[in-house]
Structures are given as C-alpha cells and as structure tokens.
Amino acid sequence: MPHYPDAMPGSKTLFERARKVMPGGNTRTTVFVDPFPIYAARGEGCRVWDVDGNAYYDCINNFTSMIHGYAHPDVTAAVVEQLPFGTAFGAPTLSEVELAELLVERLPSVDQVRFTNSGTEGVMMAIKAARAFTGRPKIVKIEGAYHGSYDFAEVSLDSSPANWGDLPRSTPYAKGTPRGVLDDVIAVPFNDTEALRAVFAAEGDSIAAVLIDPMPNRAGLIPARRDYLHAMAEIAHAAGALVIFDEVISFRLGWSGAQGLWGIEPDLTALGKIIGGGFPVGAVGGRADVMAVFDPTAGKPALPHGGTFTANPVTMRAGLASMRALTKDSFAHLDCLGASLREGVTASFEKHGLAGQCVGLGSLFKIHFTSHPVTDYRSIYPGQAERKKFDVFHKGLLGRGVLSASYGLFALSTPMTEEDAGAILQAIDETLGDVAAQS
Ligand SMILES: Cc1ncc(COP(=O)(O)O)c(C=O)c1O
Q1: In order of start, what are the domains of the chain with their CATH numbers?
Q2: Cα 269 to ligand 1 centre (Å)
Q3: Residue-wise pLDDT tens digits, 311-346
C-alpha cells in the first residue's frame, strides 16, 4: 500500500524543485495537496501511475474531463494522425465543423457553436453573449457554484459564515475583485424559486442572464429540481433575460447532458472538459438568434471573439474521437457503476456509524460528512471537524491507491469495470473506517 506521503519520495523531490520556480510549487490551485501533491507519470485506462511507480484508480480524471480515462486508442490514433499535418493554423479546419456538428446533433437547444480553449472561456463568452444580446449588464448566479476563473463567474464562490449574510448578495472570491464586478452579479440560493422571483421583481430590467450548473459540484453536487429550472426559464424570459446552463461538467451525465435528463432547453450552454478528448477546450452554444452576436459576416459583430489556439485541429480531432466513442451504451455503463458506488458508499457510512451521505448522478458522486439534509451551498459548508475528516479521507484513499478530489468528489470513466468499482468501494469503505476511528 503506497502510504501517503512516505511512499512518494519522487513526488516530494519534484515539489521541492517546483517551489523554486512556481509560487507554492503550483500552477493550478486545485491540484495542490498539503504537504505535496503526487506527480503523475502516466495513465492508461482508468489507472494512473505516479513518478514513484505507485498505481492508482483515477476517480478524479483530471477534474471530470477524462471520461474515457487515459490513452483511449481512438483518441490517440486521431491525435497521432493529425500531428504530422500541423497542430494549429491561422485558418479554420474541417475538424471544427465536424465537432460542432456532433454537438449540435446531441444538444437540441444548440443551433450553433463557438469553440474556446477552456471552460472558463466558454462560460465567459456565454455571459458576454447574453450581455451583447440583451444590452444589459447583470448576471444572476448560484451561491457557491464554480464556473471557472472569469471575474463575474467567480463571485460568491466561497462565501463563508463570516461574510455570507442574507442572500441575494455578492462576495468577492479573489482579493482585488473590482466593486463593479460585484455590483453586476447577484448570488442567489440554489433551488429556491421564490428567491429568484424576488430578484427579478427588483432588478429584472438590468439582468442579462441567469447562469446555472444544473448539478453544481462545489455547491454540493445536488441536482437542481426540474420545476426550479422550468420556473427559472419562465421568470428569466418574462423579464427578457436568458438562461445559461454551465454544462462544463454535467455534459458527462448523458447523451444530451443535464439538459437532456431534465428536459429543458437553455438559451445558451457552456461546454468544456469531455468535448476535448483530454486536450484544452471549451465552447459556447445556443439559439441561433443569440449566437448571431458572434457572426462577423455583416461587419464587426456585436461580440467579437478570437483565440490563437481556439478550435485547433488536435483538440478538435481528439474531441471528436472521444465524443464518438461516448455512446448511449457508455452512459448506461457509467450510470450503472455510479449507482452501485453511491449505494455502496451510503451503506459504508451506515456500517461505520459515521455521519455522512453520498450524492450525485450518473458517473459523478460526492460525499458529505454530515447527516442533515444537503440542499445548497450553506447546508454543505464544512466546519473544522468536517474539514479534518475530508483530509483524513482524501489522504487515506491516496494511500489505498485511489485518486479523488480533496473535497470528496469522484468522477468515473468508461474503462472502469464492475471489478474496478468493487476495488474502489473497498478502499472507500476502509478509509471511511479510518475516519470513523478518528472521529
Ligand atoms: C462547472 C464548471 N464550469 C467551468 C469550469 C472551468 O473550466 P476550465 O477549467 O476548463 O476553465 C469548470 C472547471 O472545473 C467547471 O467545473
């Protein structure tokens, strides 16, 4: 068993090197682990090996993006085929048309697509498109929901009891967030139709869009209620505002993403992660009349948009191969694995007499070390005792050869078998036993 951190001397050495040339040895806050992260050497299928040769089941999959795990043969072949022909041009290529066609076919709400290099940019362009289309400045978002690093999307991401006050409210995430940003974002509680109605009654004339992830990971991975989403569309549209779904993660929930499962068609959808086949990617798609803000054919568009590496053919080819390999059977397989793990983890909490629960849908699940109902960001906000449990759990799992997010998120991949799921569950069960013993 590769006990963390003692069995990872190679990672420790690399982190020490990294600290000299990167702040905190880190170039991505989300992958930092105290005292040091494990450094990945290679991945294959659902497994990753670190630089010390320790093997892990990867249940984070680059924060949900590697839905086929590593080195899927179709994706590798597509990339290898493209490389000798060039990796990025100052010209469009066939590959972007093909990936756009696939997305338009899978998402009934999406008539047209624009690619970006990250989910952050996909969300940013969706917000800017909503502003350009409506001529209004403000967006409404859910407290605690993560949508990437655009200033406006980051507001109220990590509100705490010290500053959260009564909603609606806007709290800065990064130090130095301009006042104007906070003024133009209204954070509301999740799944609360009346709160949304009240915000629109007060400020509807200046709201461009409501931005929502239908199952927001950082806000608890709790699915939105269908009636809430339908009411959201009604309220927003009545005020002349748009609804933006952030499906950067939730597109992995089904053939047509969360919007397909919930039976709702947002005006705009932000995408990312799985659509790039493991390469940097994002996209915004939506109704043709809204997407027309990007159209340069009649002169300067309402919303100009560029990006040196946008829609580069390596990403597009990898994304296309990966999405084609993601069949309806793949989703059925992932749903099955997810359901059995959620059930097993719930049983494990009970077995160990540990306060906790397991939430999520499809290939995603998340644990909360609390037994009270989890309904929104505030209800899942961990106190000191829960933070300690997450730390013991995360590191205990590392030591048992399972990678997860430090805050209890798990994302499964198509190469995982029932046997793999059984091994993952056993590691989770043993680690929950450790947490119970230390509580
Ligand atoms: C829901 C959601 N939206 C947007 C983003 C930003 O995507 P990226 O990291 O590709 O910029 C993320 C990233 O985790 C996300 O989870």
Answers
A1: 9-67+327-438 (3.90.1150.10), 73-325 (3.40.640.10)
A2: 13
A3: 999 999 999 999 999 999 999 999 999 999 999 999
